[in-house]
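Incident log entry.

Two folding requests arrived from the same account within the same minute. Monitoring flagged them as a possible duplicate submission, but the sequences differ. Recording both here for audit purposes.

Request one:
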Amino acid sequence: MKSQSKSNEDELDILAQADINQSVVDSIVERHKDIEQTLEQERQLYLDLANAQPTGVYRLRVFRSNKYDETKWRSSSDAPYIVEFANTRFCELLNMGLEKFQENPAIINDLIFEPDKESFIQKNIESNRDLMPFVWEGRLSVRNEIIWGHFESTPRPIPNGDVIWTGAFFDITKRKKEQQEIQAKNRELQMVNAEKDKFFSIIAHDLKSPFNAIIGFTKLLLDEIRLNNIEGIEKYAEIVLDSSNSAFDLLTNLMSWARSQTGRLTFKPESFDLLELINESKNVFSHIAEGKKIDIRVDIDTELPVCADISMISTVLRNLISNAIKFTHSGGQIIIRSEQLAHHLKVVVSDNGIGITESVIDKLFRIDEKYSTSGTQNEQGTGLGLILCKDFVERHEGQIWAESSEGLGSNFIFTLKNPKP
C-alpha cells in the first residue's frame, strides 16, 4: 500500500511541475506577443513618420563587390545596389512605384536628363570610392517634364563591407525657376544699364555739337556786328538759329524719353480720329516743307478711329515727318497713307529721299547704337527721335519698322491696335 501511495505522489508532482512549465511557456509567449506588437507599432510609427515627410527619403545598400565597378553605375538595368526603403514622397516625386524601383534600382539613371547624366554617375562613383557624402543637383525627366532635383545622402559602412546610404531627395524646381528668373532679370538690367550708359554718352556728345556751334558762331556774330557787316550777321544768325533748334529738338525728345523711362510720362489712351492728328502734324511742318519745296500729301480719304495716347502718337508722327523732310531733296515728295488690317491699323510715312542702307536700318531703333547723319541741306539729327517713336508705339502694343533702299527713299511704318467696339 505504501508503494502505491508513493507512486501517486510522484505523479502529482510531475503534473504540478508540468503545470508550472506550461505557465512559464505561456508567459514567455505572451511577452513575445507584446514585444512583437510593440515593435510593430514602433515600425508603423516610424513608417508613418517617414511617409509624412515633404521630401523623398530613401535607404540603399551598395554591395562591397560592386561599388567600384563603373559599368554598373552607368547601367540602366544592373545597379550595384538595392533599395531597402523609399518613402511615399520619394516615389511620388519620381512618379514610380516602390516595387518597380526595388525590382530595378538602376532605372533612376534613365530618369536623369541626358546632359546631366554624366555628372550624376561620376558623383556616385566618387562618393562610393571615397565614402564621402553624396550631394548632387540636376535635372530629371518625370511625367514628360523636366524637374530639378537635389540628392543628399551619407554613407555608413557595415562589417561585411557593404555600405548603407541614407538620404533625401528634394524637388527644387520652383527654386531653380525663381533663380533663373532672377538671373535673367539681372542680365537684362545689366544690359539695359550698359545701353543707357552708352546712350547718355551719345547724348552728351550730341549736345556738345550744337552748343559749341552756338558759342562759336555767336562770337563771330559779335565780330560782324562790330564791323556792321549785315551779310555776315545774317549768315551767322541763321547758323546760330539752326544750332539752337537742333539743341532744342534734342532736349525736347530727351525729356520725353526720360519721363517715359522713369514712369513719369502717363499713358492716357482715348478715342480720336487719327486722320485729324495726321493733318495737324503735317501743318506743323508746312513752312519747313515749303522752304525745301517739298510736297507733303496725306493719301487718306476716310476717318481713322483709334484709341491711343494723343500726345505720344503726335510725337511719333512729328518725328517721322520731320525725318522725311530732313532726308528728302528739294522738290521731293512725302506721302502719308494708311491701311486697315484685321486687327491693326498701319500708318506709312513715305519719302523719295536719299534712303538708308540695309546695314544701317537695324541700328535706327536701338538705344545702344549711334546713328545720326546730316540731311539733304546739312540738317543735323540726333538719332533719339526714332528711339522715342519705338518706345511710344510699343506702349500701344504696336510695332514700328523701316523699309528703305539707298537712293530710292524710305518707308517708316507703325501699327496701332484697332479700337474695341
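Request two (distinct sequence, not a duplicate):
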Amino acid sequence: MGAWRSLSRHKPSQAREQVDLSDGSLKAALHREVIERLEDDESLFGDEPSSMLVRIESLVREYFDQRHQFVPLEALEVLAREVLNEVTGFGPLQPLLKDEDISDILINGPDHILVERRGRLERVEERFINDAHVLRVVRRMLAPLGRRLDESSPMVDARLPDGSRVNVVIPPLALDGPCVSIRKFRREALTAEDLVRGDAVTAPLMALLRQAVADRRNVLISGATGSGKTTLLNILSRDIPHHERVVTIEDAAELQLGNSHVVRLETRPPNSEGEGEITARQLVRNALRMRPDRVILGESRGDEALDMLQAMNTGHLGSMSTVHANSARDALVRLQMMVRLAGFEASDGLVNQIIATALDLVVHVTRDGQGHRHVVEVQQVRGLTEDRVSLATLYHRNDRRLVDDIDWQKRIEEPA
C-alpha cells in the first residue's frame, strides 16, 4: 500500500530540527498530506476511532521523519488527534462539543475561542489554523442542512441535527474573521429540583409557578440573553397535563417539553434568492387552526407578539412565551412596541388592555457576575389603572418573601 512507507528508510543518526508547532502553514500542510493519504485507503474510515488514531500517529511521525524534523511525543499525539477530529468530526470544535460542561462555544476568528462553562465565559487553548480552516469546519456542519454560507449569503442561523443552535457571520460583515456562536443542546434537561438546589429559585416560588402552569395561567418570562429564560420555560412546561395538545413555535427548536402531545413548528429563513421565508407570525396564526389547548412561543421578538396575545385572549389559556427585557415592567413596554410593529393602530390604552387581559404572570430572570442564574421578580398582572398595566409584586429576590393567598380573579384599581 503506497500510503504506508517504512519508517526504517530514514537514518536515525541524521540531525533533526525542532518543529515550530505554532506555524499555521506547517499544520495546514501536515493536515492536508495526512488526510490525502488516509483517503488513498478508504477502508480506514470504517475503523474504530482508536485504531484510526494509531494509524494517523504513524503517518504524522512519518511526515516529520521524511523532513528530518523532531516533534516531542506529547505534541505528536496532539497533532494526530487534531487530524482525527478533522477527518471524523469538526476539527478543534470536536472536544468542545463533546464536553458536557460547556453550554456555549464562541469563535471570534481562528485563534480566539471562548466557551461558557457553568455560567462563566473562559478562553480555551483550541485554535484553528486560519480563516479558511474555520470556514471549512463550519461548512461541514451546515452541509447536511443544505444551508449556504458565502459572500452572497454571509449570515446563517441554523439548528444542527443534535438540536444545537449555530449562528455564523463571515467577512465582509465580520471584520476580524468568521464569527461563530454555538448554543449546545442539553441532552439531560434541568429539572425544577435542580433550579432550587442551585439557588436559582426558592422552593415555595417554584411551587407557585408550577401551580400557575397547571391552573392554565398565561405566563411571560423575561430576561437578558443567556439568563435562563428557555430553561425555565422548559421546566414549567412539564406541568402541562398530558392530555392537552400543545403547539410550539420557535426560530430554532430548543424546547424539550415533557408533554406527550406536542406539535413542534420551526420558522424558516429565506433561501439564497430571498424566497420561501416562513415567519413566527405565520406559524402562530397557523397554530390557532390546529386545535391547540396551549400555544408556546419560544421568543416574542416581533409582530408575532400581537397574535400571541390574541391567542391568550381567545381561550388558549396556559400559553407561554419569553421576551428579552431588563425587568418585568420593561417586558410589557417591549410587548407594546412589538404590537405596534404588527401595524396595530389603536390607542395606548387599548394596547395595554390587550396585554393586561392576556397575561397573568411576568417572571423576570437574570444572570449575575459569577454566571449564576436567578428568578429576580414575579409580577402578577392586575388589570389597568389609568390606561397603564397594573402589576402586583408576588416575589422579589431582595427579600425572598412570597405573597400568600393569591386571588387570581382580583383586579385592583390602584397605581402599580
